[in-house]
Amino acid sequence: MSSEATTLLEELASRIGATDVFVLVPVDDGMLFNVDGVGRGAGWAGNVTLQAADEPVLARAVAERLVTFDGSHPRRVFGPYWARKAAAVAVQDTVVVFGGDHLEVASAEILATAVSIRGAAMDSVRPTKLEADQAEIDQARRTVAEAVDLDMSARAVHLAASAATALGCEYAAVYLREESPTPFIADRGWRPVASSEEVTAAILPLWQAARQGPVVEQDVSQSARVHRPLGWDDGVVSAAAVPLGSEGAAGVLVVVHTGIRPRGFTVLCTRVLEAIGEAGTELLAT
């Protein structure tokens, strides 16, 4: 997208106080795909794909054309996106979602702005964005490999720290089945108030689930696999896990987002986490 087109989307969004805009276009079988936007909508372009019928806010927008909410606390709007204020507008077969703390949810301009946004937005993800996404994955792999000269414990901590940093998470933990019953952790502003044994007990269900492949819980309040001290009441809003080794033979890598910066995990987040898990498996086996 040209800088002029980007500026236009930002100007349109600013009319109603939106800092995030998502343009979700239809693809096969009722799926919606984020192709463009503002703020997180731009940053996550190409990395949000979801079934509209499975997302209450989007499903209501399709049926009613306009859905808004204005809450005192952030809530999940759709997929990985959380916001305190949001509006979802159906524009023909596309859904435009606005979000931000200063969004004017009662504005009479929301519908017209959504139509203008759709008209100005891209119809596909720009190639430079796809290239940047791949570069992010490659960099995550390289960062993990930097710990090759460290001992096993330090490698595990480095692996957790690499995941937390790459995904902007407040907490990450590496559980190694044969190495230690105590998880190796990296905290970036949040840590569970619990013993190591309690944290391990909360990690084990995620390890069991991740043995079949990556696990993503966009809203832990709705999950039966996330328990205290990594649960909703502890401040966690979303969680993800990937196996270390074939079917998690070596262990599991777990990352969480909290209420400090509430959000979930995009397709790119999952790809980055998988790449870190694969590189971490190699690192820990060396």
Structure explained in plain terms:
It is a single chain. It contains eight helices and eleven strands. The strands form two sheets. A six-stranded antiparallel β-sheet has the order 3-2-1-6-5-4, with helices on both faces. The radius of gyration is 20 Å and the shape is elongated. The chain has two domains: 3-125, Beta-Lactamase (2-Layer Sandwich), CATH 3.30.450; 135-285, GAF domain (Beta-Lactamase, 2-Layer Sandwich), CATH 3.30.450. A hairpin with a 4-residue loop joins strand 1 (20-26) and strand 2 (31-38). It has helices at 3-14, 40-43, 56-64, 110-120, 127-145, 152-167, 196-210, 267-285, and strands spanning 20-26, 31-38, 49-51, 66-78, 81-91, 94-99, 171-176, 184-187, 215-217, 236-244, 251-258. The relative contact order is 0.13. 37% of the residues lie in helices and 27% in strands. Helix 5 runs antiparallel to helix 6 (152-167), helix 5 packs parallel to helix 8 and helix 6 packs antiparallel against helix 8 (267-285). The model has no long low-confidence stretch (mean pLDDT 95). The protein is α+β, with helices and mostly antiparallel strands.
What's the structural blueprint in terms of helices and strands?
Blueprint: H1 3-14, E1 20-26, E2 31-38, H2 40-43, E3 49-51, H3 56-64, E4 66-78, E5 81-91, E6 94-99, H4 110-120, H5 127-145, H6 152-167, E7 171-176, E8 184-187, H7 196-210, E9 215-217, E10 236-244, E11 251-258, H8 267-285
Antiparallel strand pairs: 1-2, 1-6, 2-3, 4-5, 5-6, 7-8, 7-11, 9-10, 10-11
Helix pairs in contact: 1-4, 5-6, 5-8, 6-8
